[in-house]
Amino acid sequence: MNALARELRFFASIVGPLVTGQMFRHGRWRRCVDELYAVAVGTVPVLLAACAFLSVMLVSEFSFHMRLVLQQDSLVPGFSTAILLRELGPVVCAFLLAARVGAGYAAELATRKATEQLEALEAMGVDVGAFFLAPRLLAGAIGGCLLTIVGVFSSSAAAALFASTIIRRNPEDYFRFMWWMTHPRDLGIAAAKGAVFGALVVYLSLRAGMRAKPGSSGSGEAATQAVVGSSVAIFVADFLVTALAW
Amino acid sequence: MTLVARCAAEIRQRVAAAARFVRFALETVRGLRALPRLWQPFLDHLAHLGARSVPVTMMVAAFVGGIMAIQVELELRDFGAVSYLGGLSASVTFRTVGPALIAFLLAGRVGAYTAAELATMRVTEQIDALRVLGADPIEALVAPRFLAAAVASFLLLFCGLVATIAGGVIVASTRLGVAPERFLLRLPELVTTQSVVAGLCKSLLFGLTIAFVSCYRGFYAEGGAKGVGEAVRVGTVHSILSILALDAFLASLGFGGGR
Fold first, then answer.
1. Which of residues 87-116 of A touch B (CB under 8 A)?
2. How close A24 gets to chain B, by Cα (Å)?
3. pTM of structure
4. Is residue B192 classed as helix, strand or coil in its secondary structure?
5. Are B39 and B146 in contact (CB under 8 A)?
6. Which one of A95, A111, B150, B231 is CB 3.0 to 4.6 Å from B221, fit for a cystine?
7. pLDDT tens track for A151-187
């Protein structure tokens, strides 16, 4: 019962300032912009590298499967773009967010907690939820959504470029056929998946940071908990969203 | 400092980091020779890393199988080729999507725990203390953990790949209206021995990658308590990128008949 009450209290402290609009008062929205910069811009170089690798793997493997079933690989652009947009793009972005941003948030909050910085803020009358937690949650959701869109488009562009060497298909031809199996709705669902995964990763990471044991070991444990919890949650949420959306 | 001097310093730093990486790899491989003496710690780490991750890995893998069944059905529906659903989704999951996605999960579980454990030992000076006592920390601490993380990752990936088929069957029969026998109909035709071997080889390589990257990042952590979090963060990001890079490299080589 105590655990449930504690869980609800934490949920209210992080979501409450967003619902009541408290987070947007006194120029606090600027913190959200700063966090969004840290979440999204900082992750872009890693994401672009991951997308390039992902596109090579997808084109090559889908070529194998198309030849296995249809004895030709002309449908590779459509199939690989569809699986990238509906599945792999949002999931890879979410894992990179969990590893890069989630672990960082958890370790930072755990350190602040261990050095009593959060208690000092509360003593000064600052609402920690509105000041520290809610802007990060919002930044996680917006950042997850934007990164997923960037990831999907850059992977598709990289796939078109690599396709010329892997399946002897010129980029122009690849671009022409890549969208024919997908609908604009799929892009909306991919963006929604990105937002859900981003919010989930940040929520679980902040939770791990706030629950860290005091002392020097708390920071590392919180970072580990954040990565472990987020990676499981991403798959469960992915299954639920996929089952509901299609 | 001039631009040239800054570039030179940066290059020197990169070369030193690369040399340290190679030295660590060689010392870890050399440390594995002492394994007959370190059998017990290896088994303890294997039980700790592997046993606790089995239920979660199986559950997540079943979700991956279910997700892939939904996605592949979506693509096959327009062609009236739903009879290929089981074979194609199992083949895509087994040799392409499954090993990579389950390896991401394991980078977060096995990799993060290993990196955090070694990093905590580094920042609390336990590794330095071992060196002062005349023991080789790579042999005593890294080698058993490296092998345990690699073996645990491989076994978990193998169990996970089997669970993906189960997840696919369950979702296909309950949600997509495809009976299990129809789902499994073309499985032997499309999931070839070559694909199974490719999936297992990828699992082994991904397991070794996770083990190596997490041990390296944990062993060279610095900066006190903050360094432990940093080791987990950098270790997980580098594991995910290494898995994707290795996957792309194998695919471009035509590994498992991919080209």
1. 87-88, 91-92, 95-96, 98-100, 103-104, 106-108, 110-111, 114
2. 30
3. 0.89
4. coil
5. no
6. B231
7. 999 998 888 888 877 777 788 888 888 887 788 889 9
